[in-house]
């Protein structure tokens, strides 16, 4: 929470002092297009995060760090934008907002690939990304006193709840369709087997009725 509030306080001071872009703390990271996103809800997938952060630019790469054994999200990722200016917008607008039950941290980062990793392994595939409906967009929420967590939680709504619920509902529908398709296939196969057995029995009866040659 302290790290989230620190970024908010810096941005607030710069805004009040009318600091220029070239003198802003963001300028220290002008040569990196990566941002760090922490405290993410564990149920979010890469496509969800890209859909959210594409509101401020075009994400090109995302590395959602996962547990090596379970493959489950560890709640943080490194996201790269096509334009470094999108990093500034994402940090200024998303740091401190609440996604589902988590208040996320968004900050600049000098991201370094681990040994054996290739940046192309983390390319964003937009054919899997669904656009967020306007009514479910993440809005910049005023960040209250973080020392009083209970009061702060009351100030935040849950802007992603409808989106996640809709995605889960869609996945359930797809699973039902797959189940019906499998059932239809099994039903056709049973009918074909039954029909074939019936024809075999008919053929056997004909043979048994035919007079045997002497």
Automatic annotation (TrEMBL):
<dbReference type="InterPro" id="IPR012677">
    <property type="entry name" value="Nucleotide-bd_a/b_plait_sf"/>
</dbReference>
<dbReference type="InterPro" id="IPR000504">
    <property type="entry name" value="RRM_dom"/>
</dbReference>
<protein>
    <recommendedName>
        <fullName>RRM domain-containing protein</fullName>
    </recommendedName>
</protein>
<dbReference type="GO" id="GO:0003723">
    <property type="term" value="F:RNA binding"/>
</dbReference>
<feature type="compositionally biased region" description="Basic and acidic residues">
    <location>
        <begin position="162"/>
        <end position="173"/>
    </location>
</feature>
<dbReference type="InterPro" id="IPR051847">
    <property type="entry name" value="RNA_proc/Spliceosome_comp"/>
</dbReference>
<dbReference type="GO" id="GO:0005686">
    <property type="term" value="C:U2 snRNP"/>
</dbReference>
<dbReference type="InterPro" id="IPR035979">
    <property type="entry name" value="RBD_domain_sf"/>
</dbReference>
<dbReference type="GO" id="GO:0000398">
    <property type="term" value="P:mRNA splicing, via spliceosome"/>
</dbReference>
<feature type="compositionally biased region" description="Basic and acidic residues">
    <location>
        <begin position="189"/>
        <end position="205"/>
    </location>
</feature>
<dbReference type="Pfam" id="PF00076">
    <property type="entry name" value="RRM_1"/>
</dbReference>
<feature type="compositionally biased region" description="Basic residues">
    <location>
        <begin position="174"/>
        <end position="188"/>
    </location>
</feature>
<feature type="domain" description="RRM">
    <location>
        <begin position="33"/>
        <end position="111"/>
    </location>
</feature>
<feature type="region of interest" description="Disordered">
    <location>
        <begin position="162"/>
        <end position="214"/>
    </location>
</feature>
<keyword id="KW-0694">RNA-binding</keyword>
<dbReference type="GO" id="GO:0071011">
    <property type="term" value="C:precatalytic spliceosome"/>
</dbReference>
<dbReference type="GO" id="GO:0071013">
    <property type="term" value="C:catalytic step 2 spliceosome"/>
</dbReference>
């Amino acid at each position: 929470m302290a790290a989230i509030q620190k970024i908010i306080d810096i941005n607030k001071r710069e805004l009040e002092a009318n600091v220029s872009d070239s003198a802003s703390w963001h300028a220290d990271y002008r040569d990196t297009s990566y941002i760090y996103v922490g405290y993410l809800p564990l149920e979010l997938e890469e496509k969800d995060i890209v859909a959210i952060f594409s509101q401020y630019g075009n994400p090109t790469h995302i590395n959602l760090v996962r547990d090596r054994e379970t493959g489950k999200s560890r709640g943080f990722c490194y996201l790269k934008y096509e334009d470094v200016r999108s990093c500034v917008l994402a940090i200024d607008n998303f740091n401190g907002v609440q996604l589902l039950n988590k208040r996320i941290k968004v900050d600049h980062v000098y991201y370094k690939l681990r040994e054996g990793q290739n940046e192309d392994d983390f390319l964003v595939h937009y054919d899997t990304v669904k656009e967020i409906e306007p009514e479910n967009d993440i809005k910049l929420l005023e960040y209250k006193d973080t020392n009083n967590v209970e009061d702060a939680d009351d100030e935040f709504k849950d802007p992603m709840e409808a989106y996640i619920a809709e995605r889960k509902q869609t996945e359930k529908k797809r699973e039902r369709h797959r189940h019906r398709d499998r059932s239809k296939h099994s039903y056709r196969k049973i009918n074909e087997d039954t029909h074939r057995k019936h024809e075999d029995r008919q053929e056997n009866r004909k043979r048994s009725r035919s007079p045997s040659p002497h």
